[in-house]
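The passage that follows is intended for readers who have already worked through the single-chain material. We present the inputs for a multi-component assembly, then the predicted structure in tokenized form, and finally a short commentary. You are encouraged to pause after the input and sketch how you expect the pieces to fit together before reading on.
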Amino acid sequence: MASTEYIICHECDLLLAAPVLGIGEKAHCPRCKLHLSTHYRNGSDKVLAFASSALIFLLASMAFPFLGLNAQGQKREISLLESFDILISSDYGILALIFLIMVFLVPLCSLLGIVYVYTAIKLWRPWSGVKAVMKWVTRLQPWNMSEIFIIGILVSFIKIVSLADVNLGLSFWSFILFVLFLNACLMVLDRYQTWLLLRRLYSYD
Amino acid sequence: MTDEDSLNTGVSALDQGYQSCHVCMSIAPIAHNHCELCGSVLHARIPNSLQKTWAWLITSILLLIPANTLPIMQTYVLGSGSGDTIFSGVITLWQHGSYPIAVIIFVASILVPVTKIVILITLCLSIQFSHASSTTEKTTLYRLTELIGRWSMIDIFVVIILAALIQFGGLMNIYPGFAAITFALMVITTMLAAISFDPKLLWDLNQIAVPEVKEAVE
Ligand SMILES: [Zn+2]
Ligand SMILES: [Zn+2]
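Having made your guess, compare it with the prediction:
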């Protein structure tokens, strides 16, 4: 039978007694110092609240102009969706795809997945597919690059500020809030604690 | 078969016939192929970890060459075009006095990928030649590659944003260069190299080098 008495450090393979954490306590591997788990106060509520907020701001950031430009008497305003069109029409489909996946689809799918898993936990309903969804949320994480995109925006902003007047649209601020809430959500989403809850929800103990 | 009652904490799990699920962290005997809780395929070590890491590393080095020699961005002003490579872009920014941006692009596009590739090569070689010393430091280096690798994408996003924004008919247009594609693929392949690398292999060496630790517990 699967045991909950032990865990194995996933970086150095040390066998450890499963940490029993009080609120606010953290567990680290004694040998390689890898962070294993943190028990956040009201962790599930926070995950659900941050994920829903991030989702709302992500969807809002699609709706308005993202960046505006004023140069040599010409005005341009683009939304995020228009920028995909421009990339695809200029024969750089691969870049458009990478951009679409890493900046939007990965965070969007992760957030929808997190909301689904944590709603099931909150209502204590063993819905179908919850464990498979959580598995994919974990696998997708390295490919989320939305926060790097923000640095990219700021760098481009400084690069063109000498050429033209740039103004940040409503979508830009909405996107910043989305990234902040997404990162807050991923910070309080503890993998070990989540699977402990799912183990109980599906009565493996 | 191994018995859970006889498990010893503070010792490698594989030596005691146990493995953990890389998704949900449940533990299972090494004879099990699938995780009972989440259904993932189980393996004590990433299968063919070194071969996969080498393959991705060689691919990323091959992609790094066109990424640095071909233009990453094409600027057309009144019909006449000029291309900028990553390095010439950094030089231009520096000459225009945009020092912070020049430093950010240099670090993200040149320093980070090269450092990441060098670290992963060092880690792979140290496993292949069973070089067991300073495992803690090597683990720290491995975590560093996981942490910094993604930030190389900054310049790709800059090119994408500029290409989407700077489209002023015949006056001024910016397009991505071919290097933008090879550079993006290079970042992806170095990330795959880091994901394929199993840091547990570093600690496996450590235990071979210090057998008395294992014997003391047995
Ligand atoms: Zn460890
Ligand atoms: Zn599992």
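Commentary: The first helix of chain A runs from residue 43 to 60. Chain A touches chain B through 68 residues (CB under 8 Å). How closely did your sketch match?
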